[in-house]
Amino acid sequence: MVHKSADQNLLGELRSFLGDRARDGEFELGLYSKDGSVLEGNPMIVCLPVNTEEVQQIVTVCRKHHRPFLARGSGTGLAGGAVPVGDPVVIATAKMNKILEVDLQNRIAWVEPGVLNLDLSRELSPLGFHFAPDPSSQQVCSIGGNVANNSGGPHCLAYGVTSAHVLAIEVVLPDGRIAVLGDLTAEPPGYDLRGIFVGSEGTMGVATKVAVRLTPNPPEIRTLLLDFADVRDGAATVSAIIAAGLIPAALEMMDQRAIEMVEAFVNAGYPTDADAVLLVEIDGLAGGVEHGIEVVRAVAARHHVGSVRVAADDAERDLLWKGRKNAFGAVARIKPDYYLHDTVVPRGKLVEVLEKVYRIADAHDLIAVNVFHAGDGNLHPILAYDSKEKGVLERVHAAGRAIVTASIEAGGVLSGEHGIGLEKRDYMGMLFSAHDMATQDLVREAFDPDGLANPLKVLPSGSRCSDSFGQHVPDGAWV
Amino acid sequence: MTKVKLDLPISTDDLSSCVACGLCLPHCPTYRVTQEEGSSPRGRIALMQRAHHEGAVDAEFIQFIDSCIQCRGCETACPAGVEFGSMMETTREALTAQTHYVPWWLRLGYRLLGSQGALAAASKVLAILQRLSLIPRRFSLPRIPLTQKPLRSSGSDVWLFTGCVMDAWMRDTHRAVQRVIESTGKAVAFPDKRAVCCGALHVHAGLGPDARRLAARTIEAFPGDNPILVDSAGCGAQLKEYGRLLGSESARKFSQRVFDVHEWLAQRVEDLPEVDLTPPRIAVQDPCHLRHAQRVHEAVYQVLGLYAETVPVDDDGLCCGAGGAYATLHSEMASDVRDRKVEAIERTNAQEVASANPGCLLHLRSAGIAVRHPLEIVDTLMRKGE
Amino acid sequence: MSQRDAMQQEVDQFAKDVGASDPVTVVGGRTHWQVGGLPEPEAREVRAPEGVWAHEPEEMTVRCGAGTTLGQLSEELARHGQMVPFDMDANATVGGVLAVGRSGFRRLRYGHVRDLVLQIRHIDHKGRIVSSGGPTVKNVSGYDLCRLLVGSLGKFGCIAEVTLRCLPIPETTQWFTGSLDPFELHKKLYRPSSILWNGLQVWVCLEGVASDVAAQAATFDFEEAPGPPPFPTVGRLSVEPRDLQRHVTSSKLACLAEVGVGIIHTNEVTHSRSIPEVNLSLMRELEERLDPNGRLNPGRQVLNR
Ligand SMILES: Cc1cc2nc3c(=O)[nH]c(=O)nc-3n(C[C@H](O)[C@H](O)[C@H](O)COP(=O)(O)OP(=O)(O)OC[C@H]3O[C@@H](n4cnc5c(N)ncnc54)[C@H](O)[C@@H]3O)c2cc1C
Ligand SMILES: Cc1cc2nc3c(=O)[nH]c(=O)nc-3n(C[C@H](O)[C@H](O)[C@H](O)COP(=O)(O)OP(=O)(O)OC[C@H]3O[C@@H](n4cnc5c(N)ncnc54)[C@H](O)[C@@H]3O)c2cc1C
Ligand code: SF4
Ligand code: SF4
C-alpha cells in the first residue's frame, strides 16, 4: 500500500468549508480503502459532507484540482465499486442520513443517500408501507448505494429491483452542477436520465437526494420451507412454480452444505439431511395466497418434495428468514475467508450450472456453498477458503473466472445485483462486444467527459476514451 | 503525523475473522451517532489490523479505540462470530501498558473502586457536596446516601454479589432483590469485603493486572459451591468472564456458578408468589451486558412479565451510552447515544422503565427517565399485591 | 440454417437497411406516428424485423423482433397463459411502444413498460448492432442502455430485437364502475390494476384469483363494467398523483385520469412540459454522442425546441 500524501492545497480548500470533516489521517484513510469485497485501494482524502451544497463544493474543488472523486455509502458493495483507485477524494455519504419527507399522497419518500435501507422500511412500516428492494445487507446498505448498484433482494422477484422503485434523484454532476433526474410524475419529459443513472455505480455523479416509491405492505404473508433429497428436484420445482403461473414474493434456495452451516448457527430447524431446501414466500390477498400455497404444494409433490413446512406465525417466519439472511456469515465460521460470486443463469439451467460450480470448486480444491435467489436464477456461489494457505487466492480467482464463464455459456449474465465495479470490469468483454462497450462509454462520457467520477470502474480500461488515471488496478485486485 | 509504537498481541486469526460485511454497523451506538467508519466495529477492527501490521498507531487510532463503549452490540450482530469484546480488551490493555493512554488521575480513580474504605469515604464527601448542591447535575449522580444500614444475610442457599459503586450508592436495590429471592423460599448470603469490586471497569480501561487482582480476591469471597447471583448486569458479565481472564481451573469453576439474578429466577417462576393487581406497562431496557455479553436478557421479561406488561424498546438492543465509566469520560458521545434511546423509550408509552444494570439506570435517570431495577419494581408490586 | 441464425440474419438485414448514412425513420404500426412531430420528408422509411423468436414460459421471457405487433405477441404468449401488460393498440409494434415509451392503463399494478425490458439490440447511427442489458430476468451488467432507448423515439438508435419479461395472465380480470372518491378507493384497495376517473364516475380494474377480486369488490358498491371507458385522445398530461384532483376538476373538456399514476388523457390540446436547463444540456450531450449527424428520425423531437 503506497499512500500518496494529500495535496495540501486541495485539503486546505476542502477544510475551508468542511472543517474537520475533511480527513487525511493515515489510519483513518485506511478505513475507507475497502468495501465488502476483497479489493483494496487508497483514498487521498476522505470527506464527510452533511448536505448537497457541501457535496457540490467538494466536487467543484476536486474538479479544479483535476482530482478524481468517489461516492461511498455503507461500503458493503461486493464488486469493489466503492474501492478508491487513482487516489481519489472519497465522499462518504453516511452523515447524510435524514428521511426528508414522506409523501403519502404521491406514495413516495424523499431521502438522503446515507439513509439505511432497513431504517427506511422501519420508519414506513407504521404507515403501512415499505421500500421494496431488500438486499440481504439491508440493515446496513445505504439507499445511495442501492441506487448506484441497482440492488436487488429476495423480494425483487415479484416487486422488481431498485430501478423500479426510484422516481427521481438529485445528483451533483461531475462538473459540479446540480440536477434532478426524473420527477414525481409518471412520464417526465425528455430522455430517461434517471433510468441510466440507476446502476451507474457512482460514475455519473453523486446522488444527494432520492425519491423512492412506497410499496404497500401485503395483507397476508406465508412462508414455506420445502426440502428435497435431490437438488435437481429442488431446481426443477423452481422452474415449475414459475411455469405454473405463480410469481412468489420470494423463492430462495440453499444447498446441502449451506443448510448444515446455517442450521448449526441459527437452529431454525432446517432439515440437515436434505440435499436442498427452498424457501418460498407468497404474499398478497388471502385468496391468492391460499391458491399460491396449493400450487406450490402440488408442484413440489410432483417433484418428490420431502416435507413442506408452513411457518405458523411471524416468529417462525423470522426464524426461517434469519437462516437465509445470515448464510454468508455462517460460512465465515467454518473458513475464515470467503469469496461471494453473483451471476444469473436462465432458471432452466440452474441444475446444470450448479453441478459445474461444484466441479469447478473440486478441481480447485475449494469448498463451494450455494445460497441464492433461485426464483430469478441469480446464483451466489460462495467459495470458502483460508487466505493463510499458500497460493489459495490464485485458485479462488481461477475458480471464480470459471464460474462466470460457465454462467455466461449457459446464457447468463455477469452480475445479477452486485454490479461490475472493479471486480468484473475486465469480464465485460465476455458479455459485450467492444462496440457495445464503446457505446456504453459514450453515455457515461455525456455525464462525465473528464472521467473524474469513480474512475476505472465498470468498463475495462481499453474501452474508455478517457482513462487519465492509470491503467492499473491496485494490488489485491485480480481481474 | 506522529506515531507511537504499539505491540498488539491479538492473533492474526482473530483479526482476520472479520469479513468487513458491515452488518454490525447499525448495531453500534457510536456509529449510529457519528456515521464514521472509525467509530464502527468494522472500522475499529481494521484499525487493530493495521496497528498489528505496522507495530505503531496514530492519534486517530487512539481516539477511535477510546470512543468504543464496549457494549458488544456488534458481537451479537456479527454473523461471522467475531469476538470483538476480547479483541478490544486486549487493545486497551496494550495501550494502557505501552502508552500514556490512561492518565494518572484516572488510574487513581479506578484504584478507589477496589478499596471499600476509600470508596465509602469518597462517597460520604460526595453525599455532603450533593446536599450543598455543589455537584453539577450533568454528572448524573444518584442521590448518594449519607449513612448506610448494613445488609443482613438470611441464610446460605445462594450468594448475592454486592459490588462497589452499587453497594455504596444503591444498597436499597440489593435489599429489594434480596426480598424477591427470599420470596421463592431461598435464603441469601452476602460476601465479605474481599468481594469489593468485580473489576469490569478496570478491564474496560485496559488495567488488566488490577482486574486480575480484584478477580482473585473476589473468588476467595465466595467459598463453597452455592450459586452466586448478581443483580448488576455489568458485574455479572465480568464474573462470568473470570475463567477466561485468569485462565485457571478454579476461576472457570467459579464462573460457572455465576448467574444473573433474573436468569436464576426465570428457572423457578413457579416459586414466585402471585399477586392480584392490574399489571402496569413497563418498558424494558436491555442492558448490553445482559443482552450482548451474557445473552440472558429474555429472563428479565419472564420474571417481570409475571407482574407487569413488559414492552421491549424497539431499537434492537442498542446501547444507552452508559458503558461503565464511559458516560463520565465521554459525556458528549454518551448523551448523543442516550438521545436515541430516550426517543425509543418514549415510543413505548410505558409508565416506567426497567433496567437491570446500575450504570444504565443512572445514565437514563439523569435524562429524566423514570427507571428502576426490574426487581425493585417486582418487589414494590409484590408488596402492594400482598 | 438454425432458428438463431435466421433471426441473426434478419437483424443483420435490418442493420443494412438502416445503413450508415442518410436520414432514416423506423415505421412501426403508425399508431403514434405524430408523437414528437413528423419525420422530415427525405427520411427513408425502414421496418424492424418481426416475429416472436423465443418464448420460454419457465423463464417468463420472450424475445422478438421489434417490428412484431402487440397482437402477434399477445397471441403467442397467451398460449402459455402469459402476457406483457402493454394495453395498447394491437397494431402497434413492440419497437414502437418502447420508442414512444408510454405506459399502459394498468400501470398502477404493473409499472412502466421500461421495467419489463431485459435486453435490446439496436442499430446505431453507423449501422452497427449494439446490444445492451441481458437475456435473464435479473441483470446489472454494465450501463443499462435499454432504459435510455425507451422513450427516445428512436433518436438514439433503431430497435431491432427486444427481450421482455412476461407475466402470468391473472385468473380473473374484472372492471367495475360507480361513483366514489377515487382517492379513498385507492387507499383502501390492495394493488388494484387500474383506477380511472373522469371527475364524476370511477372505473376500477381488479385482477387476481376470483375470491380476492370478489372480496375486494364487496368493499365498495359498484356495478360490473365490460372494460375501461374510451380514452380521450387529443392530449396526454402527466402530473404528480397528488395534483390529479386539481387538474381533473379544472379541466374544461372531457378527460380521464389514472388515479395513483397521475396520467390524464384529455381532449384538450396539451403541450410537453419544459425540461430544466441542466437536464436539457445532458440530453443534448447524449444526442450529440449517439447520433452526431442527426440522421435518426430527423424532424421528430424528444426535447422541446
Ligand atoms: C452480507 C451482504 C449481503 C449482500 N446482499 C445483497 C443482496 O441481496 N442484493 C444486492 O443487490 N446486494 C447485496 N449486497 C451488496 C451491497 O450490499 C449492495 O450492493 C448495496 O446496495 C451497496 O450499498 P452501500 O451503501 O454499501 O454502497 P457502497 O458499497 O458504499 O457503494 C456501492 C457503489 O455505489 C456507489 N455509491 C454509493 N453511494 C452513492 C451515491 N450517493 N451516489 C452515487 N454513487 C454512490 C459507490 O461509488 C459504489 O460504486 C450484499 C452485501 C453484503 C456484505
Ligand atoms: C387507442 C390507442 C390507445 C393508446 N393507449 C396507449 C397507452 O395507454 N399507453 C401508451 O403508452 N401508448 C398508448 N398508445 C400509443 C401507442 O400504442 C404506442 O405509442 C405505440 O408505441 C406506437 O407504436 P407503433 O408501432 O404504432 O409506432 P409508430 O406510430 O409507427 O411510431 C411511433 C414512433 O416510434 C418510432 N419507432 C417505431 N418503431 C421503432 C423501432 N423499432 N425503433 C426505433 N423507433 C421506432 C417511430 O419512428 C415513431 O417515431 C395508444 C394508441 C392508441 C391508438
Ligand atoms: S462494543 Fe459497542 S461501541 Fe464498541 S464497536 Fe462494538 S457496538 Fe460499537
Ligand atoms: S465484525 Fe462481523 S458483522 Fe462486523 S464487519 Fe466484521 S464480520 Fe461483519
Instruction: Report the CATH topology name of the largest domain in chain C.
Output: Uridine Diphospho-n-acetylenolpyruvylglucosamine Reductase, domain 3
The CATH class of the largest domain in chain C is: Alpha Beta
Instruction: Assess the beta-strand content of chain C as a share of residues.
Output: 15-25%
Summarize the main sheet of chain B. Answer: 4 strands, parallel
Describe the protein's topology.
The complex is a heterotrimer of chains A (479), B (386) and C (305).
Chain A: H1 8-18, E1 22-23, H2 26-31, E2 45-47, H3 52-64, E3 69-72, E4 89-92, E5 99-103, E6 108-111, H4 117-124, E7 129-130, H5 143-149, H6 156-159, E8 166-172, E9 178-181, H7 193-197, E10 206-213, E11 215-216, E12 220-228, H8 231-243, E13 250-255, H9 256-266, E14 276-284, H10 286-302, E15 305-310, H11 314-325, H12 327-332, E16 337-340, E17 343-344, H13 350-363, E18 367-372, E19 378-379, E20 381-385, H14 392-409, H15 428-431, H16 434-447
Parallel strand pairs in A: 2-4, 3-4
Antiparallel strand pairs in A: 1-2, 5-6, 6-10, 7-11, 8-9, 8-10, 12-14, 12-15, 13-14, 13-18, 16-20, 17-19, 18-20
Helix pairs in contact in A: 1-3, 8-10, 9-11, 13-14
Chain B: E1 4-5, H1 12-15, H2 29-34, H3 41-54, E2 56-57, H4 59-66, H5 73-77, H6 84-98, H7 104-113, H8 116-131, E3 158-161, H9 165-169, H10 171-182, E4 188-189, H11 200-205, H12 208-220, E5 228-230, H13 233-246, H14 249-256, E6 258-260, H15 261-266, E7 281-285, H16 288-293, H17 298-304, E8 309-312, H18 326-329, H19 331-348, E9 352-355, H20 358-365, E10 371-372, H21 374-384
Parallel strand pairs in B: 3-4, 3-5, 5-6, 7-8, 7-9, 9-10
Antiparallel strand pairs in B: 1-2
Helix pairs in contact in B: 10-21, 13-14
Chain C: H1 3-18, E1 24-26, E2 44-46, E3 52-56, E4 61-65, H2 70-78, E5 82-83, H3 94-100, H4 107-110, E6 117-123, E7 129-133, H5 145-149, E8 158-165, E9 167-168, E10 172-178, H6 182-188, E11 194-197, E12 202-208, H7 210-217, E13 223-225, E14 235-238, H8 244-250, E15 255-258, E16 263-266, H9 277-290
Parallel strand pairs in C: 1-2
Antiparallel strand pairs in C: 3-4, 4-8, 5-9, 6-7, 6-8, 10-12, 10-13, 11-12, 11-15, 14-16, 15-16
The complex binds flavin-adenine dinucleotide (2 copies) and iron/sulfur cluster (2 copies).
